[in-house]
Amino acid sequence: MNIIIIGAGHAGGTVAALLRQNGFKGGITLIGEEPHAPYQRPPLSKGWLKGQVAGDGLLLRPRDWYDENGIALKTSTRVVRIEPASRTVVLSTGESLSYDKLVLATGARARKLVLPGSDLKGFLELRTIEDAEALKAWFKPGFRLAIIGGGYVGLEVAASARLLGAEVRVIEREDRLLARVGGPVLSSFFRQVHEDHGVEFRFGVTVEGFEGLDGQVSGVRLAGGELVPCDAVLVGIGAIPNDDLARDSLLVCDDGVVVDGHARTSDPNIFAVGDMTRRPMPLYGRSVRLESVPNALEQGRQAAAAICGTAEPKPETPWFWSDQYDHKLQIAGMIFDVDQTVMRGDPASGKFAVFHLSGARIQAVEAVNAPPEFMMGRQWLASRREIDPGRLEDVSIPIREV
Ligand SMILES: Cc1cc2nc3c(=O)[nH]c(=O)nc-3n(C[C@H](O)[C@H](O)[C@H](O)COP(=O)(O)OP(=O)(O)OC[C@H]3O[C@@H](n4cnc5c(N)ncnc54)[C@H](O)[C@@H]3O)c2cc1C
Q1: Is residue 255 a contact partner of residue 289, using CB atoms and an 8 Å limit?
Q2: Which of 67, 111, 342, 354 is at 20 to 30 A from 242, Cα to Cα?
Q3: Measured from the CB, is residue 45 less than 6 Å from ligand 1?
Q4: Does the Cβ of 299 fall within 6 Å of ligand 1?
C-alpha cells in the first residue's frame, strides 16, 4: 500500500511518523512546498523571534530521520492537482504519483489585507520561517512596528518586539483583544500587561489604507483620519484554510475540508488533518475549524489509526496556549453555550482562572499562570462532571478538592 501526504507541516509530519509507529510497512511520500522538513510554528512568534530557539530547534524531527524511516520527503514541491478517480496526484514538476490512501495536511495561510497602499514595501505576515526571518530583520531599538490584529499572533509578536526594543502599536477592529478566542476578563488582563510594557492600542477602528515614503510604508490611515506612524506593518488578521485542492477534487468543504471523527473526508480514500479541516466536536454538538498544535496531533492520531486499522484514539478536549512576556495563558475548551462565568483568583495578582459553565458543567477554562486550574478544568471538561460554582471560586479550597 502506498500513502501520500500532501503538506509537510505539523499535521502531515505527525501522520508520517505515526504510520511508522503503528507498524505501517508500505510506502510513505510526504510532499511539502516549503524548503524545510516539518517544523513547529509556535516558536516563530515567541522564542525563535527573541533568539532563544535556534533554526534546527524548530524541526519536529531531524532531516535524516525521514530517510532512516523509509519516508520519501519531497520538499520545495507543490501538489497542483488531485485526480481522485485514478488516485493520482500531480506535482508542480509535472510528475504524477499514485496512491492507495491520500492524506491532506495543507494547513492554512495568512489572511491578506488588500487596501490602498498595501502594495508598498514593509508589509509582513507570519506563517513561515522565512516570514519570521523577514520580521526579525526589522527589529531594533526605536523601530516602529504597527500590528493589525490583536489576536494571538499579533500579541505574541508585540511582546517579542517590545523585548527587543521596538515601538509597537496594535490596531484592533473589535473593542477588545483576543475577541475571537477569549472572554472579556482575559482581554482586559492582556491589554493591561501590554500597556505596562509600553504597547499602544487603537480599538474599534477600521484601517482605510496606508501612506508611504519612497515606496516604503510610513503610516496606517484609520477611518476618522488618524495616521499611525510606522516603519513596517505586521498583518495578523487570521488564517484561511488551504482547501483549494480539496474543493477542486469535489470533496465536501465548508471553510475547511469536512472530516469525521476519524479524519475521513467525503472520499473514502482521502483523509485530512490539521488547520485545513472542519471537524466534529461532539462536546459542543457542532463542527469547528481549529488552528492549534494539539488539534493537528489529535487528528494525526485519528488518521494513522484509521489507515492502519489500529485502536481508535480516545477523543480529546481542545486546548490552546500562548506565551506573552512572562505570562502563560492556557485555554481548555471553547466558550460555547455558556450561562455562567466563575472567577477563581484575582487578575491583579497576575494569577487567575476564568471558568465558563453551562449549568454546573465546565465548557471552557482560561487560566493565566495557573497550570493546576487548567489541568483540572481540562479533566472536568472531559468527564462532564458537575461542579459547585461556590466552591470553585473559593481559593481557600485547593483546586483538586473543589
Ligand atoms: C506564528 C504562529 C504561532 C503559533 N502559535 C501557536 C501556539 O502557541 N499554540 C498552538 O497550538 N498553535 C499555534 N500556532 C498554530 C499551529 O502552528 C498550527 O495549528 C499548526 O502548524 C497546524 O499544522 P498543519 O500541518 O495543519 O498546517 P501547517 O503547519 O501550516 O502545514 C501545512 C503545510 O502544507 C504546505 N502546503 C500547502 N499546500 C500545499 C500543496 N498544494 N503542496 C504541498 N504543500 C502544501 C504548507 O506550505 C505548509 O508547509 C501558531 C501558528 C503560527 C503561524
Answers
A1: yes
A2: 67
A3: yes
A4: no
CA of 250 to the centre of ligand 1 (A): 23
User: Cβ of 300: how many Cβ atoms within 10 Å?
Assistant: 28
Mutate to test the pocket of ligand 1, among 291, 295, 319, 323 (most ligand atoms within 8 A of CB): 291
Tens digits of per-residue pLDDT, 159-204?
Answer: 999 998 999 999 999 999 999 999 999 999 999 999 999 999 999 9
| pLDDT 10s digits, 72-106 | 999 999 999 999 999 999 999 999 999 999 999 99
**What are the cell numbers at 18?**
505515526
Mean pLDDT, the chain, whole residue set: 96
Q: How far is CA 116 from CA 23, 147, 226, 341, in A?
A: 54, 17, 15, 42
pTM, two decimal places: 0.96
DSSP 59: B
| C-beta 321 within 6 A of ligand 1 | yes
Helix axes 152-163, 184-196, angle to 10 degrees: 20
Burial of 164 (0-12, 13-18, 19+ CB in 10 A): middle
pLDDT in tens, 110-152: 999 999 999 999 999 999 999 999 999 988 888 999 999 999 9
pLDDT (0 to 100) of residue 139: 85
Looking at the CA of residue 14, tell me the nearest atom of ligand 1. Answer: 25
Strand partners, 73: 30
3-state SS assignment for residue 335: coil
